[in-house]
Amino acid sequence: METIKRLPDAEFEIMRVVWENEPPITTAMIMVKIGNERKWKPPTLLTLMSRLVERGFLQTEKKGKERTYYPLISKEDYLELETGKFMEQYHENSFLSFVNTLYNTKKPTERELDELLKWAKEWRE
Predict the structure, then answer these.
(1) Per-chain mean pLDDT for the chain
(2) What's the pTM value of the predicted model, to 2 decimals?
(3) What is the spatial distance between Cα 26 and Cα 22, in angstroms, rounded to a whole number?
């Protein structure tokens, strides 16, 4: 598999819509979901979609007047990559550093602590 590159925020927003919907997805569907809200014009969305195709995140097919798009990278694979890079860059792959930073300004609730302990016990098994 080619190296997955980090997505700019606008392209990530588009991919979130793609991942949340059953493929294929169309530009019209994306305009309804986020394009109108972001006040994107159709050419802007088409440019962003083309970039996602070029980067290997989407595959496209022409069906009549409309293009359809299919994800080539799963949300899970992308998030695993991004989380791994984040942990390495900011926390030197230390889970404890991450948790300390996360809860540095607020105390975790009893429920959060219970869930974290449950997760840790299950993970070790």
Answers:
(1) 90
(2) 0.78
(3) 11
